[in-house]
Write a structure and sequence with these properties.
The structure holds 2 protein chains of 2 kinds. By secondary structure, chain A is mostly beta strands. In chain A, 0% of the residues lie in helices and 56% in strands. Chain A has no helices and 11 strands. In chain A, strands 2, 4, 5, 6, 9, 10 and 11 form a 7-stranded mixed beta sheet that branches. Helix content of chain B is 0%, strand content 54%. Chain B has no helices and 11 strands. In chain B, β4 and β5 form a beta hairpin. Chain B starts with a strand and ends with a strand. The chains are: A mainly beta, B mainly beta. At the A-B interface, loops of A face β4, β5 and β10 of B.
């Protein structure tokens, strides 16, 4: 596998479920990101990790919990979500997050539907 | 914080025509402006970017122009082809700043009709 891979590609969950999204990058990058993509809205930055340290939490509700065990892996743990959380969740990586200098490499995304 | 506005939200052109997408930004300190293309069901990919020390950059049929005074930048696609059909996102960030993460526009859905 090369690039940025995300699993699962599709996920349907109830409001009381707990699930996790996984992202893995094989590019040797040091920064990883979670973005939310909803219809007719900009790509919304959720979390940034640089060298495994969280450097940004963009006022995301606590029902979304990120985890970055190493520079190659990023998780997004989901619990007690709301229907309005249904969206495409995109993972991305870059060489580093310093000043947005690096090209973002996106995964294919995880399409989440909350019933 | 930075705010990026993008217009139009949809654009339909005939194959061979030119397409122009415009973005404005609010933070005069922003100095890096990339454009991403997202084909249907695929991931966004960088197609071209420009930094504030230049006014224009070209790559084959794609060009980007930047007007720092007016705080707007544009993507120009010439001789459009059906494979140019996609959603295009502009973005802005501050290179070297403490909050350098990209802020994206809402996207423009470009349809190229054969």
């Amino acid at each position: 596998e090369t690039g940025v891979t995300q699993t699962p590609r599709h996920l349907v969950m109830g409001m009381t479920n707990k699930k996790s999204l996984k992202c893995e990058q094989h590019l040797g990058h040091n920064a990883m990101y979670w973005y939310k993509q909803s219809a007719k809205k900009p790509l919304e930055l959720m979390f940034v990790y640089n060298f495994k340290e969280q450097t940004e939490n963009n006022s995301v509700p606590s029902r979304f919990s990120p985890e970055c065990p190493n520079s190659s892996h990023l998780f997004l743990h989901l619990h007690t979500l709301q229907p309005e959380d249904s969206a495409l969740y995109l993972c991305a990586s870059s060489q580093d997050s310093a000043g947005g200098t690096g090209e973002l490499f996106f995964g294919e995304g995880s399409r989440l539907t909350v019933l | 914080g930075e705010n990026v506005e993008q217009h139009p939200s949809t654009l339909s052109v005939q194959e061979g025509d030119s397409a122009v997408i415009k973005c404005t930004y609010s933070d005069s300190a922003s100095n890096y402006f990339p454009w991403y293309k997202q084909e249907l069901g695929k991931r966004p990919q960088l197609i071209i970017d420009i930094r504030s020390n230049v006014g224009e950059k070209k790559d084959q049929r794609i060009a980007v122009t930047l007007n720092k005074t007016a705080k707007h930048f544009s993507l120009h696609i010439t001789e459009t082809q059906p494979e140019d059909s996609a959603v295009y996102f502009c973005a802005a960030s501050i290179v070297g700043g403490s909050q350098g993460n990209l802020i994206f526009g809402k996207g423009t859905k470009l349809s190229v009709k054969p």
